Amino acid sequence: MRSPAIVILILLVFFVISFLTNILGPIIPDIINSFSLSVGLAGFLPFSFFVAYGIMSIPAGLLQEKYTGKRVMVLAFGLAFVGALLFAVFPRFGVALPSLFLIGIGMAMLQVVINPLLRVAGGESHFAFNSVLAQLFFGGASFLSPLLYSYLVTNIHTDNTSLLIRICNALVPEALGWVSLYWIFAAVALAMVIVIAVVRFPEVELKEDERVQTGGALRSLLSNRYVILYFIGIFCYVGSEQGIANWASKFLQEYHGVDPATKGATVISNFWGLMTIGCLLGLVLLKLFDSRKVLVSFTACAILSLLAALFGSVEVAIYAFPLCGFFASVMWSIIISLALNSVSSHHGTFSGILCTGIVGGAVVPLIVAGLAELLGLRWAMTFLFLTLGYVLSVGIWARPLIKNKTIR
Which of 101, 197, 214, 365 is most buried by a 10 A CB count? Predict the structure, then answer.
């Protein structure tokens, strides 16, 4: 049953997922300063969030089959609300870790549920278009959330008399203006719980190939070396993306004296903004060229951009970090499509395995943080050349059963 209203709601869910997920990078310098953390300890912040994907991606698929997608979404946003409120009320490092883990669990559950729902609500023939539209909403939120952070921290406890600032002034201590974001996260998550609870959802009948199977199907896939190689590809891509997004602002502050609340936040905003623009260009290129060639070309450019960002001047770094986002834009979708087009069955279970690879967003930034304690952040971030190098290699060794259709 097609439902444009549900499609709009799902697009809003994509927006909210991104809004809550990709704000860590801009606020990490503030968290470090507020709680007097080392870079190594700060690395546990993204770890606490993204490790939830490794734990919850496959169980969320099983929950979706046992209960309705609506119930799973209400539970997911409920967990995000509890996590955000917990940290908003008790803003300390020890609370931040379980708080981020709860939010991460909720976001992992949502990622699994919303794609089959989008297929049903929007119609199968419109699924590809709606999926791209959803990614644009996802990218738009990633672009806007650092700007909201910058607005809040530069206006809280000033003479700004807007309603939002007056409310935040009453809720957060003067030295912890960035905590206002978590009050907003809690309010948004609670609003989504209420909206989803009252909206009537269409019945979602999972196709056999969309179901997550933990028996023979899972064992069969895990015995296929290409499944493992593609899992590592997703692990390395998400690790690279989050490794740059989480540490770029701190890098600019440490090596170039850039204010993380203003220029640093703008750089991260541009990183996600250019990633969204890159998705649009990628759609065109994938109609002209083999996806493997596009992946190799874009990843090579991402490596060169990161090299310039780490070892260039401040002017170069301010432009080069966002360019990394632009060239990373096609990696996720190409790796996923190459992977799913490389097996003939059990795509739902394979998707669960691939989504588990999002745990790379937990592990890689933590490795960078640990290396930064020994080598400094600049040399620690060179670890990302290894993960990006693996992503580039996918475009070389991939042998999909079905290639992307081009107009040439």
Answer: 365
